């Protein structure tokens, strides 16, 4: 946000992209990256990221619905479907399995959980590569932000000692 607030959109793209490399499901970083990429004219990727951020928000609402109405299989299934569409197969498989826990007769959920578990390996990433649009972004093409002090900001007057922190040994 620091780089974005200073209108350094290229550095902001780098920062948001790096954040998404660390946490590929961070919806705020996804949304902010879509905004700065749009400002840089990278409309196709910006649109894809914006859509994905929307799906992440929809997922958050679906999970809230599960907590509000815990016995609604429809809410559990919606969360599982969204996770699967986002390429988060570990979580989707677990949610489908939870649907089966709520409704043992839900054969489609049972089959989906089995199918997803069969596709997973211990090395499967949190988000499948083909579902992670951030991987299409070459972060090395964007500069790191330059953290320079803003000398125009007023500095606090510490000469009178009023704002000085002092420690006393009381032992």
What oligomeric state do these chains adopt? single chain
| Overall pLDDT metric | 85
Looking at the structure, what is the overall shape? extended
Distance between the termini: 44 Å
If you compute it from the alpha carbons, what radius of gyration comes out, rounded to the nearest whole angstrom? Answer: 23 Å
β-strand amount: under 5%
Portion in helices: 55-70%
Number of E-type strands: 0
Structural class: mainly alpha
Major sheet size, sense and barrel closure? none
Number of helices: 7
Low-confidence stretches: none
Q: Helix and strand succession?
A: HHHHHHH
Keywords:
171 residues; mainly alpha
Secondary structure blueprint with pairings:
Elements: H1 2-5, H2 9-22, H3 27-39, H4 43-68, H5 73-85, H6 89-102, H7 107-119
Protein model, in words:
The protein is mainly alpha-helical and 171 residues long. The chain is built from seven helices and no strands. It has helices spanning 2-5, 9-22, 27-39, 43-68, 73-85, 89-102, 107-119. Helix 4 (43-68) packs antiparallel against helix 5 (73-85). The longest helix is centred in the N-terminal third of the chain and has 26 residues, at 43-68. The protein is extended and about 75 Å long. The two termini are 44 Å apart. The model has no long low-confidence stretch (mean pLDDT 85).
